[in-house]
Amino acid sequence: MAAVLARPRPSETTTRVRSGHRIFLFVLAAAVALRVLVMLGYNTAQLYWYDSFTYLDTAIHMRPQGAFHPAGYSWFLWLLRPFQSVELIAGVQHAMGLGVGAMIYLLLRRWSLPGWGASLAAAPVLFDPAFLRLEHAVLSDLQVIFLVVAGLLALMWRREVSTRAAALAGLLLALAGLTRTAAVPLIGLAALWLVLRRTPWRRTAALLVAAVLPLAGYAGWYAQHHGRFALSGSDGIALWARTMTFADCSVIRPPAREAVMCPNGSVTDAASEYVWLPGSALNRLPGNRFSHNELARSFALKAIAAQPLDYLREIVKDTSLAFTWQPVNHPKRVSLANTFPQGAWTLPEEHTLIGKVRREYDSDIQGLSSVEPFGTILAAYPYPWFLHGPLFGVILLVGMIGAIGRRRAALLPWAFSMFLLVGPVAALDFDHRYVLPSIPLACVAAALAFQKRRQPVVDV
């Protein structure tokens, strides 16, 4: 009887899993403490002109923007609008950042990675100041990261993807695409991954239907306001700006209608700057710059078709900025901070939109300033830049080996990471901010490269 009633001894695997969880709980507690310090170290959330105020204004007057920003992030801001606090937005985003780290850890433990290895892969998103500054800012980046990692988790939680999981992943990736259009092609990558795995067609169809329906619905809403079935009104403008670093109209030979988009001698140091450069061909045309989106797209596609090697050269050159030992200011007017900034910054009050958003969303909106003694502690927080540059390149290389070798578990996160790294450069320009969404996925891919091929999925 005693033998029957005796409590079963935990298996070796269960004991190892629990021990690994203790490691991550310690890591997570440190990450929580760091975020509390950030909330105490600044008087408010970081607000950027003009992105933050455009997002907030769209949340107040819900409509699709006709320029760069789809409305996905503004929906999130609309949900928090009753609280009338940008500080609350930052607090919720800090919790989302912790959630990203937890999802990475759980996914890797599910694929039999040891607790220390899974915790190490989650460390960049939990402790890198660049990620914490995104969490503390009214910007869409953190939401994109959260949704993409959640979509990856849905697809990879089980070795055999269920129809329900595929549909959930499709919806999450569509929401990521409606937050930032650069994430839309990830839906195609996910579908291709399912096909390569010989997944039953119904599951691939479930992913595509769940993704296409919200995208099509949004495009219809956009058409009601702007007369064009699209997700944004800037894709052509962005691609045109990309071509301004290499376009040669003696080679392209555009038709007369598009010749006005040729380089006109105005030169700047980064492709994205041509969108705003007063003397650029785009900004010398009559009317709003975004009203010329279709003309710009047509010219850009002809330029790429006529000079494909020049286009690829510019993509490689700008993407390589992600791997430099010392960060490169790109464009040069941008000042980079390797850690948490200390000081006080004012808002450009000459823009009437700032006052409008202050009246309608949060009356306490103000410029960011550090709060002592916490600001000094944050400014001394050590996180070396090389963990972004050279080490990021090594992580991508390890993930690539795992993706193309016998252990192909790394294929999907590595493909997601590479596309999120290169896609924005190909569509417009390099930006250190746009590198960040690819880092957590690269860490997942690199960790999975060490996963033993025949090791079973572990119940965590």
From TrEMBL:
Keyword DNA-binding: no
Taxonomic superkingdom: Bacteria
Entry annotated with the keyword Transcription regulation: no
Localization terms from the record: Cell membrane
Transmembrane segments: 23-42, 88-108, 138-157, 169-196, 205-223, 385-404, 411-428, 434-450
Membrane topology summary: Multi-pass membrane protein
Biological process, per Gene Ontology: lipopolysaccharide biosynthetic process
Chief place where the protein resides: membrane
GO cellular-component term (any): plasma membrane
Alphabetized UniProt keyword annotations: Cell membrane, Glycosyltransferase, Membrane, Transferase, Transmembrane, Transmembrane helix
Entry GO MF terms: pentosyltransferase activity
Signal peptide residue numbers: none
Official protein name in the record: Dolichyl-phosphate-mannose-protein mannosyltransferase
